[in-house]
């Protein structure tokens, strides 16, 4: 009888802990952080279903995390759009220049927008663009990008809100280009990467 009471009490205690254990397990495995929605990134197109055959990234658009320090270090050439993460290699596939493009006005002011699922202390937000004459049929490399970002925003270690937007001036370009957005994290060795196919007019 005494043993049965102990078993019942232990079982009740375990049942009471299950919700807490579930929350802890979920929080411990959360890998996601953020991605660009304006201009729409490749992972955003995959998550929305506008592009199919994307593999795992369709469920994890926020997870394109790789080493920071770009362009001096960071993801290897040909793996930049996936942040060097082989799980998301579909983002590096140029698809015959077939990714949907966001129309932009050359030299205009633009509101850049990120969706943030897990906030981080942030060093900066930086935006690179492909050179004139780049080859849209090849995976993105440093040689295809202008060497310096056309826009940088110092964030001073602050944590961004769940929807982070800021304005900046677009480069003077025409036709199809790729904008590479880099979100540099202040308190880890990583950054988040997002490639957006755009068409300047």
Automatic annotation (TrEMBL):
N-terminal signal peptide: 1-27
Keywords: Signal
Ranges for region Disordered: 66-104
Domain spans labelled Chitin-binding type-4: 33-198
Coiled coil spans: none
Pfam families named among the record's database cross-references: LPMO_10
Superkingdom of this protein's organism: Bacteria
Cross-referenced SUPFAM superfamilies: E set domains
Gene3D superfamilies per the UniProt record, alphabetical: chitin-binding protein cbp21
CDD domains, per the entry: LPMO_AA10
Stored PANTHER family: CHITIN-BINDING TYPE-4 DOMAIN-CONTAINING PROTEIN, GLCNAC-BINDING PROTEIN A
Protein name: Chitin-binding protein
